[in-house]
Write a structure and sequence with these properties.
The protein has 164 residues and is of the alpha/beta class. It has five helices and seven strands; from the N terminus they run E-E-E-E-E-H-E-H-E-H-H-H. The longest helix has 21 residues, at 74-94.
């Protein structure tokens, strides 16, 4: 099983089949409030990961986490870096094999050359080609697909193709 994680409090986690890349499950990033900001709820992430993957010690699953990139604001940079290191610690302490991937590397491989400002629409189009039956809606009441779920699915597929 492959799990892709779009890092950050607005990110998501998606599990796909290691065999054929079929979409298994996905959730938007579980968060909890701390003071005046949201942060990743790593225990909820761990529960989802272990439930979906039916994880037990010694079972092989591969998790790929998107690295922090150059954020536009210091507060965003702090949030994404903090999220990445929280996920990293949780995965290491849980004994889960994981890899890191840069946004530029998976986007270039999965989306090809995309004009500036069209990355998100191209990502949705590629995801719909790969998983035509998946809506990428975060809830049943949602009307707009989650960019986090789309990115996490594409990260998982890139990991599968690289055999990470």
């Amino acid at each position: 099983m492959r799990v892709g994680i779009d890092n950050g409090v607005s990110g998501a986690l998606v599990a796909i089949s290691d065999h054929d890349g079929s979409y298994i499950d996905g959730i938007t990033m579980p968060v909890k409030r701390w003071r005046s900001r949201n942060e990743i709820d790593v225990l909820a992430v761990r529960r989802w990961l272990f439930d979906v993957c039916e994880y037990e010690p010694g079972k092989i699953i591969s998790v790929t986490v998107e690295e922090p990139n150059n954020s536009r604001t210091p507060s965003t940079a702090y949030s994404v870096a903090s999220s990445f290191h929280s996920l990293r610690a949780m995965l290491d302490l849980s004994g889960v094999k994981w890899h890191r991937i840069t946004p530029q590397s998976w986007q270039k491989a999965m989306l090809g050359k995309v004009p500036k400002g069209e990355t998100k629409s191209r990502a949705l189009a590629v995801a719909k080609e790969l998983w035509p039956d998946e809506s990428f809606l975060p809830t049943k009441r949602s009307k707009k697909p989650s960019e986090g779920l789309i990115d996490a699915a594409l990260i998982a597929e890139r990991s599968r193709r690289l055999k990470l």
